[in-house]
Design a protein that fits this description.
The chain is mainly alpha-helical and about 550 residues long. The chain is built from 25 helices and two strands. About 70% of the residues lie in helices and about 0% in strands. Strands 1-2 form a two-stranded antiparallel ribbon. α1 packs antiparallel against α2 and α21 packs antiparallel against α25. The longest helix is centred in the first third of the chain and has 35 residues.
């Protein structure tokens, strides 16, 4: 019988192979991820002794999820290409330039504030699909845009898709535990929803503390890695604006989590922050002076790895006919459709989910697969693209070019995702083997918990982050580890709800370095093969985020 420690080491091998090949050796994901899949499958078959049919079912489930991700990527690129071909993108660029020509200001408004709203509305990596190409269209290097798009997928994520990581992820993870229900009754929660709301408020408190510095991280890393002088100082010079933008989002975010629960913090926080910060920027509050305006180096001097294959040239013949309202109307439609189809109090999402394709028991296993194509963000992007085609009176040849370019980029992204997501699914679904071991994520967490004891709250977010890094989802990470985190909290004699909250915060932070999110975001702007370079940069804010949340959590539960 293998020891807990040895199982933990073996469980780390698929993740370690990703880190080795992708981050250390700098292989492109399309080369690194097939090896990681083979490692995970071999462990499942020969160590965990999972039946071959179960590994096959998990792999097929991964392929279906990969296909849905590729559809989202395709829809986001199609909308972007449509706006470019119509000339609307030129007007969108002008609008942001009128707010401020300073790239530091632009990235905070688009990635942090607009991205928080999109995350709250749709979740599941959609902010990168919307904000990253928008930044590239403004003249950002593709890699700088991807890095910014990944870093902001932290604070808003726990309440993304109208609270799904809490209302589905934590809820599913805890609801089957009798110990949790007994605890809820003991501490006076009359309804299960009160327990979830209490966890959600704890999550919001931790995010508000850790997330206040995220806009500053975005600009500091941008000036350090993509500036003429390669210095952090140029980013830190806009600290007043960065902190103002952070608080403009996190304060209403925290208030809404306290008063309304987990569904609306990111939606309301992002919208409120956007309104407040854009108004303040137009009035010059906290803004850098005109002579301090920061810009990227001239495009001719960019290293080759900064640029993707997406071309940001406009269609000059039609650009003059597109006004501000018409240019932004497709994005307004995207935001509106995302909100009305994700809010549970409205019936539209349920109607769209009725059109579900799937199989409940693949190959006779308990692994199911399904998708609701009409409910996917990719469908909303396609609808918005058609809307833009008619609104801007595009000719069919231009629209056909948009479809061809989008299809080509989607095919390029598929090579990495068709191995990344199946590897994740084999890793997650490695229970039920003849060896009797817990699934690999749980075995890994058990080994860590046995080593650290009372210091667990400080490391709890890193386990949540590890789950999201592997699974590509805060929701899935919470499903896997919430019950385990609760049990460890009780075992070491601290408030277990804070430990679950630390799990959820770490799971959100894990999206910063999640492989298939990086692949998907990079694919939108044609930056394939440089995923490891992106993760090496975003690893810094991830360690900060999980570390500060763990430190605060440790103090809260022990002091």
């Amino acid at each position: 019988m293998l020891t807990t420690e040895l199982l933990a080491v073996l469980s780390l091998l698929p993740i370690g192979s990703v880190a080795l090949f992708l981050v250390v050796w700098r292989w492109p994901a399309k080369r690194a991820m097939p090896i990681s899949y083979v490692v995970a499958a071999a462990l499942a078959l020969f160590v965990w002794q999972v039946p071959l049919v179960r590994v096959a079912a998990a792999s097929v489930r991964g392929l279906v999820i990969a296909a849905t991700l590729l559809f989202i990527v395709f829809g986001a690129i199609l909308l972007l290409q449509t706006l470019q071909q119509s000339g609307a993108m030129r007007e969108i660029r002008r609008g942001f330039t009128r707010i401020s020509p300073d790239r530091r200001v632009q990235v905070i408004i688009i990635a942090w504030l607009f991205g928080a709203f999109i995350e709250g509305s749709a979740g599941f990596g959609t902010p990168a699909a919307v904000c990253v190409p928008l930044l590239v269209s403004l003249g950002f290097p593709a890699m700088a845009a991807v890095v910014a798009g990944m870093i902001i997928q932290s604070t808003p994520v726990s309440f993304g898709a109208a609270g799904t990581p809490i209302l589905v992820g934590v809820n599913t993870g805890l609801s089957t535990s009798e110990a949790v229900r007994e605890y809820a009754a003991q501490v006076g929660f009359a309804e299960w929803s009160e327990l979830l709301a209490s966890i959600g408020l704890r999550v919001a408190i931790l995010h508000t503390i850790a997330g206040t510095l995220i806009p500053l991280f975005v600009v500091a890393l941008m000036t350090r890695f993509f500036g003429r002088n390669r210095t952090v100082d140029e980013g830190l010079r806009v600290w007043r604006f960065a902190l103002f933008a952070a608080v403009s989002m996190t304060f209403p975010y925290l208030v809404v989590a306290w008063l309304l629960g987990p569904e609306f913090p990111s939606i309301v926080g992002g919208l409120t922050g956007l309104a407040v910060v854009v108004t303040a920027a137009r009035r010059g509050w906290f803004m850098p002076s005109p002579e301090e305006t920061w810009e990227f180096p001239d495009r001719d001097g960019w290293p080759a790895q900064w640029s993707g294959t997406w071309n940001v040239d406009d269609a000059p013949s039609s650009a003059s006919r597109i006004g501000f309202v018409r240019a932004w109307a497709p994005y307004v439609l995207v935001a509106l459709l995302l909100v009305v189809t994700r809010i549970r109090a409205l019936p539209f999402g349920a109607w769209l989910k009725e059109w579900t394709l799937g199989v409940s028991n693949l190959f006779g296993t308990d692994i199911g697969v399904g998708t609701a194509p009409l409910h996917l963000p990719g469908t909303i992007f396609v609808v918005a693209s058609l809307f833009a085609f008619f609104l801007n009176r595009m000719d069919r040849a231009s629209y056909a070019r948009a479809w061809r370019a989008s299809s080509k980029t989607m095919v390029s992204a598929s090579a990495a995702l068709v191995f990344t997501v199946p590897m994740v699914q084999v890793f997650i679904n490695s229970d039920g083997g003849a060896a009797g071991h817990a699934e690999m994520p749980r075995a890994l967490a058990d080994g860590v918990a046995g080593l650290v004891g009372a210091a667990w709250p400080a490391l709890s977010p890193f386990i949540g982050g590890l789950g999201a890094f592997v699974a590509g989802s805060n929701t899935v990470s919470n499903m896997m580890f919430s019950s385990f985190q609760f049990d460890v909290g009780q075992r070491i004699g601290v408030d277990p709800l804070w430990v679950v909250a630390l799990q959820a915060v770490g799971g959100a932070a894990g999206n910063i370095i999640c492989v298939h999110n990086v692949v998907a975001a990079s694919a939108v702007v044609g930056l394939l093969g440089r995923e490891g370079a992106v993760i090496r940069i975003t690893l810094v804010p991830f360690v900060y985020y999980a570390g500060i949340a763990g430190l605060v959590g440790y103090v809260l539960v022990h002091v």
